[in-house]
Amino acid sequence: MSALVGRKVIIKKGATVVAAGIMSKTLTINKEPIDITSDDDNGFRTLLDSDAGVQSLDISFDGVLKDSDIIAQIVNGSVITEEYTATITGLGEFDGDFALTSTEIGAEKDGAVTFSGSLQSSGAFTFTAAT
Questions:
Q1: Whole-number Å distance between alpha carbons of 120 and 58
Q2: Residue 59, phi-psi category: left (phi > 0), alpha (psi -120 to 50), beta (remainder)
Q3: Domains in the chain, ordered, with CATH?
Q4: CA–CA gap between residue 98 and residue 109 (Å, rounded)
Q5: What pTM did the predictor assign?
Q6: Is the pLDDT of residue 1 over 70?
Q7: CB 71 within 8 A of CB 103
Q8: Both ends of the chain: CA-CA distance in Å?
């Protein structure tokens, strides 16, 4: 497999791209185990069975603000879970319900207005490998 191109990672809500001007994206897959360390473990960490714990997918993104859509999504609604898809061309797709949990606006004196946002999975998500 050759290297993948970052601009071909696309985050959509339904058929709509999440926000115009996105320049970088990060997907973090978590599987937090349950720590059951006790005094009997002689100072070494012990984790509960590998099926236990919390699995989640967090997506963060940032870019140059081109319109007010991303701001309206976070301000005009409560934390609503909706179906999102993150497509990594050449690798596959992550699908599931996510909540847009934060948006930040940055404005340097001589630079473009920037934004960053965060999506957190709610419930199960799937990964389908590219064929």
A1: 5
A2: beta
A3: 9-126 (2.40.30)
A4: 33
A5: 0.80
A6: no
A7: yes
A8: 12
